[in-house]
Design brief:
Helix content: 40-55%
Radius of gyration: 16 Å
Number of helices: 6
Structural class: alpha/beta
Strand content: 15-25%
Largest sheet: 5 strands, mixed
Order of helices and strands: HEHEHHEHEEH
Distance between the termini: 50 Å
Shape: globular
Strand order of the largest sheet: 1-3-2-4-5
Oligomer: single chain
Number of strands: 5
């Protein structure tokens, strides 16, 4: 019984810090306007792009980044997986391709676009070997407050 309680608490803790990724631009924009937060749009290839996977592991998935992002950003993900078992629904693929046409026409991966609450580009970044704190500082350097 103690094991089950411990496992339950571990799972609950992992949900507490889970990154809340939006996958729809309009939804992200509405939240950004309502909360006066910038949008961090991340183009990634989650199952094939090594730098994307590193960025996720070293920054996006960390408790430090997730805690900060929850209060300061609206996180928007445009994923482009290649493996058949990871394919997204057609509607999501179309949304991601539309975002890529506008914000990532050269197809860079990973590509992080910092947008204001109305969708205006403030800056962009790629993979950089930085700690979560350093990556947050680099993102914030693009945001005029």
């Amino acid at each position: 019984m103690k094991k089950l309680i411990f496992i339950g608490l571990l799972l609950l803790g992992s949900f507490t810090y889970a990154q809340e990724w939006k996958t729809d631009f309009d939804t992200a924009k509405k939240e950004a306007v309502k909360e006066h937060k910038p949008i961090i749009l991340v183009f990634q290839g989650s199952d094939w792009c090594a730098p994307c996977i590193k960025l996720d592991k070293q920054v996006w998935s960390t408790e430090e980044f997730q805690q900060y992002a929850k209060d300061h950003y609206v996180m928007l993900q445009a994923d482009f997986p290649k493996k058949k078992e990871h394919q997204l629904p057609e509607a999501q693929i179309a949304k991601n391709e539309k975002l890529a046409e506008k914000y990532n026409p050269y197809g860079y991966f990973p590509f992080v676009v910092i947008l204001d609450e109305n969708g205006k580009v403030l800056g962009n970044m790629g993979y950089e070997k930085k700690s979560p704190k350093q990556y947050i500082a680099a993102l914030n350097a693009n945001i005029k407050q």
